[in-house]
Structure formats: C-alpha cells, structure tokens
Amino acid sequence: MDVIWTDLLAAIALVLVIEGMVPFLNPQSLRKMLETVSQLDDRTLRIVGLVSMIFGVVLLTIVR
User: Fold this and answer.
1) CA triple 54-19-44, angle to 5 deg
2) What are phi and psi of 4, to 5 degrees?
3) What 3-state class would DSSP assign to 44?
4) Which domain holds residue 31?
5) Reduced to 3 states, what is the DSSP secondary structure of residue 59?
6) Is the pTM of this model over 0.90?
7) Rounded mean pLDDT of 39-54?
8) Helix residue ranges per DSSP H, 1-64
9) What's the rounded Cα separation, in Å, for the pair 21 and 8?
10) Exposure pattern of 20-57 as b/e (b: 16+ CB <10 Å)?
11) 15, 31, 38, 58 from 12: Cα distances, Å
C-alpha cells in the first residue's frame, strides 16, 4: 500500500478514536453539546467548520 494511503487511513483511524472518546467518557455532556449545536444557525455552523478546516490545514503544514 502506498505511503499516502497508509497515512490517510491512519489519520482517519485517529479521528475515529478521538471522536469516540467524548461519548464514551461523558455521554451526558455530548447530549448537551449536540442540543446546543442543533440550535445554531447554518451560517454559524459553516463558519465553525471553515475555521476548523483552516486550523487543521495550518496544523498539518506545521507538522509536515
């Protein structure tokens, strides 16, 4: 398997592990967070998503 595919699969696996930690460790806080997020308007959610993507790209650039 190509190194690129191995890195991509490792990154996806790490995301799944990190995202699984909150519901496993504190499901009640996840419910509260999801309730809060469901009340946000689309524009705010898009801005949060954009900021998250930019932060991820910057962090990846620094690490690589």
Assistant:
1) 45
2) -60, -45
3) helix
4) 3-63
5) helix
6) no
7) 97
8) 3-25, 27-38, 42-63
9) 20
10) eeeeeeeeeeeeeeeeeeeeeeeeeeeeeeeeeeeeee
11) 5, 24, 25, 18
Q: Which residue has the tokens 């993507």?
A: 53
Tallying the residues shown for the chain, one arrives at: 64
Cα angle 24, 29, 30; round to 5: 65
Six-digit token pair at 21? 């930690």
The confidence band for 7, taking pLDDT boundaries of 50, 70 and 90, is confident
- Domain count of the fold of the chain: 1
For residue 20, CA distances in Å to 10, 16, 42, 54, 62 come to: 15, 6, 25, 23, 25
Mean pLDDT, range 14-18, rounded to an integer = 96
